[in-house]
Design goal:
The structure is a homodimer.
Chain A lengths: L9 E14 L2 E8 L9 E2 L2 E3 L7 H13 L5 E8 L10 E9 L14 E6 H5 L9 H18 L10 E2 L1 H12 L5 H10 L4 E3 L15 E3 L26
Parallel strand pairs in A: 1-6
Antiparallel strand pairs in A: 1-2, 1-4, 2-3, 2-7, 5-6, 8-10, 9-10
Chain A binds a DNA duplex through helix 5.
Chain lengths: 244, 244
DNA sequence: TAGCTTCTTGTCAGTTCGACAGGAAGTGCT
DNA sequence: AGCACTTCCTGTCGAACTGACAAGAAGCTA
């Protein structure tokens, strides 16, 4: 495999976080303004290096989640690895990106360590005039794409909601992440028909305007059957190429 | 983020390959018998360290694919990262696992560098009495699970076939990976109904026994619509808990 | 009580799905 | 050739599901 004199190269390991949430019925990602030099002043994903050689990678991700965003107990899953040789001027940095999903939060993220943390709509973050540090633009795009497809066949949507939620709140998640509009009546049927997706949570109620809605909580199953198929069902506005 | 005197820890980066193929109508994974010390003599996934600090991770994966399995031009996609602190006695080794899919090959893999490379049925590799080095058992399980779910909504199945294939060959892929049996007539309808999945490749023919089959090749689309939903449709043998 | 809002239950026609029958097109044997 | 056998492929039928839409239920405000 390799001769005895050869030593494998050492690299630096970082974690980056794509933290998604819903604000104002639109999908947002948390970005911070970098306070240190490579790309100082530009927007980037929260993240950082492994603290020491014994820290577990997912633990590091949760630590950064807490330090930089003040978050705990959120859905967290590995997204991908980004290790292209030239991506970081400090050396060979390999970054493990995680996807985190959180319910809508009280406000602009408290207790953060970073210079400035702000929720940015995904649309803005990915628009061509926004500048993101390193290859973070691609990481954001990958994270959003992951969320989009996982919504179809897993119960990931519930991670965007609080512990209990109404069906129309859940519908807003699908509409925001997919960028389309759905019929509330058919959505009801579908969501309730997927076994183990959501379970009723007491006949409680809520909201202030119309008829009170029933509350649900996440069900036991993660994989949805039948899946929530996303038919090209474009919103009221103009043509919107149903690209692959 | 961190004070100036602090230095991020260096780690060793490896790649591991879960190479799947179909042999004898069953899903197989390529394992090698380790020739060097940590876990010498036990079965493990092909893989190795990054060659130098400038090698791209995916390039390293393709290099190992070639060196250890004699393969090139196969489907290759990132699977996950495995970096738990105690997983390798040599130090802090973080391994990037890739999932590779290849059509059935001429024979037991030629030109390999490893002591012994052998195709093992996934069933055997994951059975409790098989011993795999490091955390490779879990990596194999993750790879198989990834293949199973990607078969549902992507054209991944075509990666198991040669450049051209018949519909029943494609069906065998689904049956082997999912471990269930499907009705050929309904499978036809479904596969042909998924736009962009497969396209006819001349009215050619093949096989030696029954009526010649039409040949197809992979179509332009990777995402399947409608998806190939996997209904619990158990094979002729006994009860088989439809677990999640 | 009327009017507004939002939630929830239905209905209906078109489509898809799973189970199954039967014809089409090769090979090999007598 | 004729027949048995194999595999491929096209159809059919009732059940289940889907998307479009109507109408009732249940709260608030005026």
């Amino acid at each position: 495999m390799f001769d005895d004199s050869w030593e494998p190269p050492a690299i630096l390991l970082a974690v980056d976080l794509v933290i998604l949430t819903l604000r104002d019925s639109r999908l947002h990602v948390l970005l911070i303004e970098r306070g240190i030099e490579p790309h100082r002043g530009t927007l980037a994903l929260p993240g950082g290096f492994l603290r020491d050689a014994n820290e577990d990678i997912e633990d590091a991700a949760r630590r950064e989640l807490n330090e930089e965003a003040g978050l705990a107990d959120v859905h967290l899953e590995p997204l991908n690895v980004y290790g292209e040789p030239g991506r970081d001027p400090r050396g060979r940095v390999v970054s493990v990106a995680y996807l985190a999903i959180t319910p809508r939060l009280p406000e602009p993220v408290a207790g953060t360590d970073a210079v400035r943390a702000c929720w940015t709509s995904v649309e803005d973050a990915l628009s061509s005039d926004a500048e993101l540090a390193f290859d973070h633009r691609r990481i954001v795009a990958d994270g959003v794409e992951r969320a989009r497809t996982k919504l179809e066949h897993t119960a990931l949507a519930t991670a965007f909601c609080g512990e209990t939620f109404t069906i129309s709140e859940l519908q807003q998640v699908y509409e925001a992440v997919w960028g389309i509009q759905l019929d509330p009546r058919n959505f009801y049927r579908k969501v309730q028909g997927a076994r183990g997706f959501i379970v009723a949570d007491g006949p409680l109620r809520r909201t202030a305007n119309g008829r009170p809605a029933r509350l649900f909580r996440a069900g036991p199953d993660q994989v949805l059957y039948p899946p929530m198929v996303r038919t090209a069902h474009v919103a009221p506005q103009g043509p919107n190429g149903s690209a692959n």
